[in-house]
């Protein structure tokens, strides 16, 4: 059976198992009043402003810099993606992950920032807008009188990440193909089709470019009940070069790491069984081990599967090979509570009950077929690095961080961590701020010399900020910042063009 036939044999285009997901049982019996319940909680817990959502596109408005924008960033634009339409027809989704994707543009000039934003016009968004109600169960919510989704496309929210490709901006989800946006107008220009045989296949929200510029990604077929991954190789222009299916543990994987020769995946000990929803069918098996999978980029075949610590990883940083050892930077959770239980708490005011992830390194010995975890106590998520040096040994990893005295459970700081010395260079925005993923912009040929650009929500004042930091001197504070006249929903990932 060739690859094309195998894709068809999987039957993913007609699969409806993705649509159900995890719900908030605390409000399940009061679904008609959930929106009212959220709004009541919002009055008591202004931190919930980050999950309140949006109802319409945002026209361009200009805001002035405090400080001075570095010349290297003039003409650049920061884009951010995340769930935003969470209320429609009087119904509110009960889980953060379910909101329809909304893309922000922060266009930089010497005087300030022009901010605008648009919803991604997915198939789901268009159909539900016409009906003026949510039609399908989401990744974490049960919708009253929901329709059966015939495939993943019906529930594709395009709400996780963004990838600049060939003068386009791809809005990514993790269980279906991305949507193409115009980077200037943010107008949705249709869905990506790599090859007709792959339409309907999962395509993760975390593609990575290697040192040659080629793009790598995967699709987790466990969404459709198969213990397999689809591996994709794309040109720098976003054209499909190769793809292959490989055997994999039947678990859940969100991200992966890239070296010059290998792709590295971690599968947590999550067992999928029966359940009302997708996530309720996932059971944490902490008494069992996780598993590392290493795939050869040259042959697109697995070369190593090795047992590993029980834990969970949403995001990986840089990875490289020295001799027979692979070093992989990761944000490590001791269990999968953040995925299976805790994210839902953003909807009822009980924020921050989950453990934060910590900056860690996974070391894999290819010849001995062993792996071990070198963990730290440094809180870090949404890890970034100077990706000009993907696959090369680098010292600095950037990400969101939490100061020692923060009074809520989210991240209120950004930081760099030197993985060789352990040195932390951080800046806290204070207890009233939730900070979002910092993106690195290089300004010289030296590793990690450049600027960090990120956004943050002051949930007490009700303003979203855009910040610019010198990546080598984070503790000095922002060199420039802009305060918007309102607050935006918290999102996930972004890009800079």
Automatic annotation (TrEMBL):
Pfam families: RPE65 (PF03055). Keywords: Iron, Metal-binding, Oxidoreductase. Signal peptide: none annotated. GO terms for molecular function: carotenoid dioxygenase activity; metal ion binding. Binds 1 Fe(2+) ion per subunit. InterPro entries: Carotenoid_Oase. Fe cation binds at residues 206, 254, 315, 493. One of its GO terms (biological process) is carotene catabolic process. Its cofactor is Fe(2+). Belongs to the carotenoid oxygenase family. This is Uncharacterized protein. It comes from Alteromonas australica.
């Amino acid at each position: 059976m060739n690859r094309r036939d195998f894709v068809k044999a999987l039957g993913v285009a007609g699969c409806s198992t993705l649509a159900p997901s995890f719900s908030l049982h605390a409000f399940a019996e009061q679904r008609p009043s959930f929106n009212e319940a959220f709004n009541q909680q919002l009055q008591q817990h202004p931190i919930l402003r980050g999950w309140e959502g949006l109802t319409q596109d945002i026209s361009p408005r200009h805001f002035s810099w405090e400080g001075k924008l570095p010349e290297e960033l003039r003409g650049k634009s920061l884009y951010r993606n995340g769930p935003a339409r969470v209320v429609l027809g009087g119904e509110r989704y009960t889980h953060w992950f379910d909101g329809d994707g909304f893309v922000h543009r922060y266009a930089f000039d010497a005087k300030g920032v022009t901010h605008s934003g648009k919803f991604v016009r997915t198939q789901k968004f268009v159909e539900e807008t016409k009906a003026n109600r949510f039609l399908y169960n989401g990744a974490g919510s049960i919708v009253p009188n929901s329709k059966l989704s015939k495939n993943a496309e019906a529930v594709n929210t395009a709400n996780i990440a963004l990838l600049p490709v060939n003068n386009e901006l791809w809005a990514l989800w993790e269980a279906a193909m991305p949507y193409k946006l115009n980077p200037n107008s943010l107008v949705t220009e249709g869905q990506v089709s790599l090859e007709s045989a792959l339409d309907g296949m999962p395509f993760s929200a975390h593609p990575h470019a290697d040192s040659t510029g080629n793009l790598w990604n995967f699709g987790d077929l466990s969404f459709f009940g198969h213990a397999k991954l689809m591996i994709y190789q794309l040109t720098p222009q976003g054209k499909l070069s190769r793809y292959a299916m490989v055997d994999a543990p039947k678990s859940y994987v969100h991200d992966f790491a890239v070296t010059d020769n290998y792709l590295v995946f971690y599968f947590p000990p999550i067992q999928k069984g029966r359940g009302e929803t997708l996530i309720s069918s996932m059971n944490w098996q902490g008494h069992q081990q996780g598993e590392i999978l290493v795939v050869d980029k040259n042959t697109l075949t697995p070369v190593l599967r090795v047992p590993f610590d029980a834990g969970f990883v949403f995001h990986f940083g840089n990875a490289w090979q020295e001799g027979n050892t692979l070093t992989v930077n990761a944000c490590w959770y001791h269990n999968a509570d953040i995925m299976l239980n805790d994210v839902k708490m953003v909807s009822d005011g009980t924020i921050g009950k989950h453990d934060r992830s910590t900056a860690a390194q996974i070391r894999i010995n290819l010849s001995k077929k062993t792996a071990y975890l070198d963990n730290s106590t440094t809180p870090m998520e949404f890890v970034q690095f100077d990706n000009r040096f993907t696959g090369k040994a680098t010292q600095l990893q950037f990400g969101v961080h939490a100061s020692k005295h923060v009074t809520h459970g989210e991240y209120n700081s950004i930081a760099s961590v030197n993985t060789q010395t352990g040195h932390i260079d951080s800046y806290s925005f204070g207890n009233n701020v939730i900070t979002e993923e910092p993106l690195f912009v290089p300004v010289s040929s030296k590793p990690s010399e450049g600027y960090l650009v990120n956004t943050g929500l002051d949930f007490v004042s009700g303003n979203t900020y855009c910040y610019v930091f010198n990546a080598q001197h984070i503790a000095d504070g922002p060199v420039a910042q802009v305060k918007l006249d309102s607050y935006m929903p918290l999102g996930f990932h972004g890009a800079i063009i």
